[in-house]
Amino acid sequence: MSTDISSLIEAAHQGNWLPLIEESKKAPGKHWAESARCMNQDINMFVPLVDGPREDPDLVKTKLGISLNRPRNLCGSCPVAVAARCLVESLKDDDEYGIRGGLLASERSELRRAWQDRDTEQAVESALRGCTAPLTKPARDAVIARFATDPSLDAAAVARGLGVTHQYLLKLARRYRKSQAGQGAPSLRVVAA
Ligand code: SF4
């Protein structure tokens, strides 16, 4: 793997996704993979059977031995923007298997989880501002929890973001606070806009 893609991946692991995402934008459009080094190569070498999202990456590497060299070298000589796009696309699609951006599936698991958390955080912030977009259940629950515990939030915007009425939002907030009180958490007052 090249130093450049390694540093982008390292930054992403530290929570700074911007360099990786910006680099991936330098390989735009539908045909970004045309300059990929794996183009016209045997795809099987990029999907080692012993690798998987729940495997231990060190064990996988030991098992694969030198057979890992060729796909890794190809990824390492891939244009950085293409390798970044390859990795970002795999994260967007939540691809569990195969080598992407030079990372084994087992090495990518942690990054996949971090990407999903990042997606959830962004969706929550958008919904709190009143943006309407489909929300996963964890994101929806997080919006309700934030609203129920932050009196400064605009109830009308949050209701719009959740796609519910103002009254129903207040009911959800009450239900959340009740559940938290049942767990010994302090009860917080909600001020509706
Ligand atoms: S980084 Fe992605 S696109 Fe480039 S060679 Fe590796 S698998 Fe192919």
TrEMBL record:
The species this protein was found in: Kitasatospora albolonga
InterPro entries, A to Z: 4FE4S_WBL (IPR034768)
Pfam families named in the record: Whib
4Fe-4S Wbl-type domain sequence ranges: 37-110
Protein name: 4Fe-4S Wbl-type domain-containing protein
